[in-house]
Structures
1.
Amino acid sequence: MKPLNIAITAAYSAFGDVARNLRNIRKWTARAKRKGAHIVAFPENMVQGQFRETYKLAEPIPSGPSTQYLLALAREYRIYVSTGICEKARGQNYVSNIIVGPEGLVSKYRKIHVCEYNCTNGTKTELVKIRGYMIGIQICRDFAYPEPARMLALDGADLILHPAAFGVPPKGNDKGYIKPRDYFLPLCRSWENAVFYIHFNQAGDHVWNGRKIHFPGNIVAASPDEYEIIRRKDKKNTERQMMATIDLNSSKTYQARKKGNYFINDRYPPLYKRLVQGKRVRRAQKGA
């Protein structure tokens, strides 16, 4: 199988300014195409921005104006565009991620472990095949739970994309502030499931209702062979696009999993019954 080139984009998403954010997606998509990318990937809630009232701007998929714009963009550049968008469906709001390509909408995943106001949790994982690669999506805090990534791996995932919008209070003058979890969890999820795993966050500083919010612009792409393919190492939280090349043939760990020689195949499911007992995931807190 030929390598897959992904343009990972830690982009700025203006609170509530959909038109500006779509222009930004276009700009970075054009750059990704020039670099030879097959997929360009944007963070969680890239279309509407990540703020308390994102749900008020939720749109239907695929009939909404933003999805229609992105469909036209993917056709124009002959590229796959993966991006976060707040979705409205049947009276509910969802934190979703769509992938559109020259052939149309190919994937829609709804965040399972929601924390956004007035949004409902999704109920299933999602896999899509692009250029022969089976790709799964996890959104933001989904990666804090090991079970969904394991389910994706058992269903045949080769690669998991992890768009995020972790906003944190600014830490002094350190614009590259990154919590350890944002670095170590992608490597853990990659190794324990023998999949490639790519984490990327929104970038930039915002002020909302007088409160400063800092998005660090993290980028980490992990190989199941326990090393970084790429990692953003500068101390800035400005926008950045980095290219990651995924080559399944180069990973001994991935090949071992496919041949049944990796420890994921030695699990003991009868022991894990407690994992599916207890209360279901809570719904997000209701906003004012």
2.
Amino acid sequence: MGRPCKQTVDYFPHYCTHGKTMFILEQRYGNDGYSFWFKLLELLGSSEGHYINCADSTTWEFLLSKTRLPATTCLEILSLLAKLEAISPDFWAIQVVWCSKFIANVSEAYRNRIVEIPKQPDFLRQKVIYEMEVDEMRKDIVPKDDPPKPLSSSDSLRLSGLLAEKILLNNPSNRSLQNGMKKATVLKWSLSIDKLNRIDKQSFEMIEAVIVWSQADTFWKNNILSGDALRKQWDKLTVQMQTTADNGKRPATLGVKTDNALFDEIATAEAKRRMAL
């Protein structure tokens, strides 16, 4: 019986000199940044097709366990890697880790294999189709005779989708996300998230961290069940996050230590916002 065809590798090149990506990671996160990058590459190498779908809850939990870092820190580092284009920004926008340079570095391993070297997964095509469907829904929602209304940005849609996935993870039978209603609900929630960014001046990075924290907290995961609720309870959420950090506690379902630095950043930003009112 022949060897099974696979799109994974047992090793990858580890060069002795590093570029700007590693320099920035170490400057900002120290040894955690160094460790995270190479553990991410290890997981890319051992994952079929050499991509990591972080939208899948099991895959995300495995990444957190492998890197031994808080979820908020992992999100920060991955967003930074996308900004530096060390991983694909387009794929990370839909919570998928894809690294073209990694594929190039392991291409030699596929030279004598029957199976082809992995190509970009089909997620982007699905994202384009989804955005086309969203555009059609917008046409139905906004009457032609009405003045144009602000539309959600791609970041607002992505974070609205993240909130929906986290809610479904906690409660798969959530009624507002069932029976074909999910896309319309995500679009509606994205308008509230857009207002959080555009009107309330909250960064998308901070909104993402609050969504992740709220859906891991035993109290707030039962109360933040929409984009409107997220915006309405924003002040209470950020205060509670800071209190949790000050008390050295962590959300019972998150399974990782809280990131005090991130919570300090949230509290500082919130204080500045209130002073500006």
3.
Amino acid sequence: MFDNEVLKKLLDSRNLRQAVFARMAKIPRNSLCRYLSGDVQPKADKIKAIADALGVSMEFLMKKPPQPPKLKLCFCPNCGVNLEGVSDLKNEKAEKPIQYTGYLRFAFGNILDVLREVNG
């Protein structure tokens, strides 16, 4: 999808007036106004003409799809143990110290060894 805000910023940054740019891109001025307002999505040939006139790629003028939020790693990549709250181990003055009541063993050894490594 064409990003009219990118086009507006490019025209502003280059001090190009709409009438001048429309002639540069060889597109009707009223079409350019509708593209800038977001009322109309230009077809591929018009996007190419705009991109060529500005010296940018067609992809640069397209809206980027929203990126999924980055998830916080909450599991040990080695064993899959839930490590949510383990960051408190690094804070020596944590108000509530984490208590581990179980003694777990995995193929790589004792989970307490892993927690000691995280703790530093």
